[in-house]
Amino acid sequence: MTEKTFAAFIVTYNRPDILMDTIQKILDQTRPPDKLLVVDNNDNDDTKNKLAQLYPGVAHLKVGHNSGFAGGGKIGLQTLAQEGYKWVLWADDNDPPYTRDTLEKLLQLGESYEGNCGQVGVVGHKINKRTGLVIRTTNEELEKGEYLEVDTIGGGMIKVIKGESVLKGIVPDPKLWFGFEDLDHDLSQQKAGYKILVHSGLFLDLRKKWNRLNFKKTATVRKKEESVLWRDYYSIRNSMRVMVKNGYYLAFFSILFVSIAKTLVSYKYGFRYGRLVTQNTFKAVRDYGLSRWYKRI
């Protein structure tokens, strides 16, 4: 019987054209998945019909409602791990692999690592347990070897997860819906003794592509487009939950303080902008305190 080595799933919501492009790029990999599954959060059949027309060999699973990246991630991981796949790619519909050999290199790293590897990916960082912020991985760290151990691999950064960990119950928390579900999952893997690795060569190549080799993060509060401010609600609410869940209490209070401080600073961009930021922050803190995980904005 042939070993089920590698499968992939893509979580999508109402973006069939973008999804089709990502599917093609995954299938064009030098090591494509043995099975590709689309976890469809739509409540209509647009994606299903387009998939049947263009990629009839790709499996489709209709959720029936928008379960978010967290809910879709849990469904996809459990479905493929229970089918016996050793490694599972957790992908978003607008984040295809960056090079044609990305998946091949990640699988080679996961298979060759002598320790207990829980997942491999392209971009990852350590977490400051006092602030809850990521500690940017340096170029020097990446240049030391083929891989680097990190605390988390962000969503969209090509996460290939060991199916064994899924079968042990380590899956994304659907309550988080959108935002920090990847960090929550990764910290759970670490607690269970799994190592999280990034491929140094792929990481460095991506920094070169994005012209971020010499990137320096500043403390300036930048103005965002109003159309994406809703994301802050989930980021604040969910990050506080993740910090408390993992015992990072200083990080919880740091996130709370910084979030409130940002609302004050945001008014320099105008009253309307400041009011929107303040509303999102207030709702996030309120709904965290009241455990309103069903809340959507």
From TrEMBL:
Segments forming domain Glycosyltransferase 2-like: 9-131
| Record-annotated membrane-spanning stretches | 247-265
> Which regions form coiled coils?
none
Domain of life of the source:
Bacteria
Looking at the keywords, is Aminoacyl-tRNA synthetase present?
A: no
Q: Does the keyword Cytoplasm apply?
A: no
For this UniProt record, the keywords arranged alphabetically read as follows:
Membrane, Transmembrane, Transmembrane helix
* PANTHER family referenced in this protein's UniProt entry, alphabetically: GLYCOSYLTRANSFERASE, GLYCOSYLTRANSFERASE 2-LIKE DOMAIN-CONTAINING PROTEIN
Name of the protein in question: Glycosyltransferase 2-like domain-containing protein
Q: Which organism is it from?
A: Niastella yeongjuensis
